[in-house]
Every structure is written in C-alpha cells, then in structure tokens.
Amino acid sequence: MPNPYRELMALGEALRMDRGWDPVSLELRCRPSGEYRLVVFHGAVTRVTGGGSGFHVILDGDYRLPQPGRHQQPGTAAPAGAPELAAARFRAYLQRRAEILGHPEELPPPATPAAIDEAERRLGRRLPADLRALYLIADGDGVGYDHRYLFQGNAWLSLESMVAEHSDWSGGDRPWYGWDLEWDSVVFDTAPADTVRRCGAHPGWLRFATGHDGNFLAVDTDPARDGRPGQIIHTGRDYDQGPVYAEDSITSLLGMYLELLDQGAYEKEGDHIELPSPTSDPAPQRIIGEIPDEVPPTLQAIHINNTTDLVDLTPLTAATHLRLLHLNRSTTADLTPVRELPVESLRLTLTGGDLTPLEGHPRLTALALNTTAPVDLTPLRTTHQLRGLDLSGADVPDLTVLADLPDLRFLSLTARQWTALLDEGKVPPTLAAARLADADATFDEALALAARLGLDTDDALRATGTLQTADGDGSP
Predict the structure, then answer these.
(1) Which is it for the CA torsion 366, 372, 377, 378, positive or negative?
(2) Helix extents (H) in 64-196
(3) How many CA atoms lie within 13 A of 150 on its CB side?
(4) pLDDT tier for residue 168 given thresholds of 50, 70 and 90
(5) Which 3-state string (H, E, C) describes 330-399?
(6) To which H or E segment does residue 9 belong?
(7) Residue 417 and residue 425: Cα distance in Å, rounded?
(8) Residue 461 three-state SS
(9) In whole angstroms, what is the distance from residue 93 CA to residue 222 CA?
(10) Which of 248, 276, 314, 275 is CA-nearest to residue 77?
(11) What's the CA angle centered on 275, arms 272 and 278, to 5 degrees?
(12) How far is Cα of residue 400 from the mean position of the Cα atoms in its chain?
C-alpha cells in the first residue's frame, strides 16, 4: 500500500518547485466513503502547531517584534578596560600557563592594525581597546577546531571568524515565531539590573569566543544605563531569554584568570588547562504552581495552574520584576495588582470582566484573555505596548474597539468573532498576523479569512475525488 505521507510530501515538493511556494501547506479531508477534498496553499496560511489549534494567517512576514532592551537608557560610563594592562595580563597569563604545561602554547601571529580596522568596518562597531590590544598579540588562539581555549573553556576567535559569526548572527529584532501568544519575546533580567540590555540578541554584542556548543563570550559595545562599554557577557543557545553578565572588561576577566591560576583553581587535562566554569544560572527565577506564602522580589515569571478557587494576585505585588504572569485554567476576579507590575505577557481567565486596571499599562505586550462575563475592551486603547491579543475565549460584545489599538500586530479570534469584526470594517490596521482559533476550522475557512483580510488566495489549489483501493472497488 502506498505511503500517503510520502505521496503528500512529494506533492508539496512538486508544488514548491513549480509555484515557488515555500513552505507549502495542504489539508486532505477524507470521508469513510473514500470521498476526499484536497486544499493546497503556500505558507502564509498554516495550521497552528503545539498546544494551540486553528490556523495562522501571516499578513506581514517581515515584521519583527521590538525587544524591550531597545528602549532602555544607554550607558554613559567610561570603559573599564585598559589596553596596556590587558596586554600585560595576557602575557602573564600565557607565561603562567606555559609554566603549568611545561611549554609555551603556539598561537597564531598577531593581527595587523589594518586588519583590525577592516574587521571593525565590517562589524560596524569599534572593538574595545583592551580586546584590540589582545589581537595585536595574537589573532585568536587557534584555527578551525584546533584551539587552546584560553577563555575559560571558550576558543578565542580570529578576527575573520568573529566577523563571520557576527554576520551570521545579526543580533537584530526577532520574528514572532509561530505567531502565537506562546511567544519567546519576554527577555528576563539575567544580568544585574540596567547593566545589559534586555534583549535576546543585539548588534552591539560582538562574539569573540565560543565553546563550539552554541554559546559565546561577547563584548558589549552598547550597554544599558549602569553598564560599561566593553563589558563581557555570555550569550547563545542557553541564553536566549537574556545574556548573563561576566565582567566589566577583558582586562578584569584576565585578572580573574590570573587569580584562579595563582590559587590553583584549575585542572590540567593532557595539554589543556581547564578553569572552573561560571556558576551563574542563565535561567530566570520562575515559579510553576501556586503563589508561595513569601513571594521572592526577584520573581520574574509565574505559571499558576489548575486552581479551583479564585486566585488573589495581591501577593505578587512583592515581585517588582515580574515579566510573565500566566493563569492556566485558573481564574481571578481582580487585576488591580497587575497595574503596578512590569508584566509583559499576561494570560488568564477573568470573572467580572473589568479591564480597568490595565488602562495605560506601560509594559503589557501580550494578553490572552478568557472571561466568564462580557468584557469591555475600552481600557486597552491606552496600552501602547500591546502587540498581541487573544480574545478567542472571551465574551466581547463590542469588538470594534480593536480598531483603536495603536500598534496591535497579532490577533486571535474565533470564526464568529472575525465575521463580526470584518462585517463592521474595524480590523486593526497594523496587523501582521491573525489566528482563526476554532479547533474544528478547515483550511478553506482559513483561506476565506485570509482573503477577507486582504491576502491574495486566488491561486490556492483545490481538488476533489474518491480514493480507490488497489482493486478499484471505490471504497477506502
């Protein structure tokens, strides 16, 4: 018997080649009688995956969600690094390592000042003076995967590799992957407050060393208010919700390495020296479960799950850094405590329908709202950071208020709600993506919504027929 999935994949590949659709989305619905309906379109309309249901309609695939660190006040302090001291410490560090290993370590030749100037031009940023001084001693600590791993288990990249890494990792604002409210745009304070910008990535972070595991050391050339240019941060695979601060400069980092060697705080493995890894935890402090009796002031995320009683949010006012508040299958009656909290992602069921405490909220970016009573959306008109809104579980008598939201980019509604909104002609003009939230929605219904939202769906392919068995009896 033919593999239907293989056949559908082959069909998708043929359409990708013929139509230039990438990706290709298709839906095949079959009846017990063998009758089928096939609908095919490109990736602007896709089924929601993961924990959601329904379909996404992408109206502006180029939209990028601004990261909160873009709005932070820039640092004005002078760099902490000192190039002459950094060079002296680096040479002393190499000498101490040679004494431990019994021989000096071979490093690449120095980079020329002209090569450093060219690298800075391609990076679009000046290197911190102390890092520049190190490149005038050696252009990294190896080639390919043959490195000395001088920076606490991280290979020091050559200028060319650093430029290539920066080009591959643009460090700009990120796409809202999945176009849902399970988005990954909340960036937590994993570094000292107002030292490093609250971004998952930033063009001012120049990655100069790597563990070849997706993680990097970077110099921060654009710090937040209390930071210093040239400070050292951890970024990469394990730091996608925010960087971790290491030291105020390469100069200080080398000083720490010398202290560790003098203390004997290292291990010699063959021809390599291993310094202890940093002990800081890159994960934000979060709670999954009930609100504790004593709420830590450092709490940044809480998921309250499956409660039967109304949740009193008042104790959370102690969490002055709370960024994410999700009540999953849990209900509250009063949003007043949220008014003073820096919450950016809010998911809850509300009884009573009063959104007044959210009026003028300066940080709220994503709201998923279920209600047990009709709700008035008017207070949301002044939540100027609101980018994503899911009302598919809410009773909203007047959806026309949505047209007044200043910068709404994602909206999730049921088919009935979308029809009411479109019939009124009040779709928010700034939408970049929409969700048809009904679990039983069909691809045809999603394409109809896309067309009403202005997307050209005339080239969608549709086919009907009856599946035949190998003996052609007309039954599946």
Answers:
(1) negative
(2) 83-101, 113-123, 129-135, 159-168
(3) 30
(4) confident
(5) EEECCCHHHHHCCCCEEEEEECCCCCHHHCCCCCCCEEEEEECCCCCCHHHHHCCCCCEEEEEECCCCCH
(6) helix 4-19
(7) 12
(8) strand
(9) 28
(10) 248
(11) 140
(12) 31
Structure tokens at 102: 């019994």
**Strand pairing partners for 434?**
57, 411
Cβ-contact 69, 241 below 8 angstroms: no
Torsion 414-415-416-418 (CA) sign? positive
**Cα-atom radius of gyration of the chain, to the nearest Å?**
28
Strand partners, 270: none
At 265-282, the pLDDT tens digits run 999 988 999 998 765 554
Q: What is the pLDDT of residues 6-50, one digit of tens each?
A: 777 787 788 788 888 878 888 888 888 888 888 888 888 888 876
**Burial of 19 per CB tally in 10 Å (0-12, 13-18, 19+):** middle
3-state secondary structure of 318: helix
Question: Which residue, 96, 391, 380, is CA-closest to 265?
Answer: 96
Q: Are 68 and 173 in contact (CB under 8 A)?
A: no
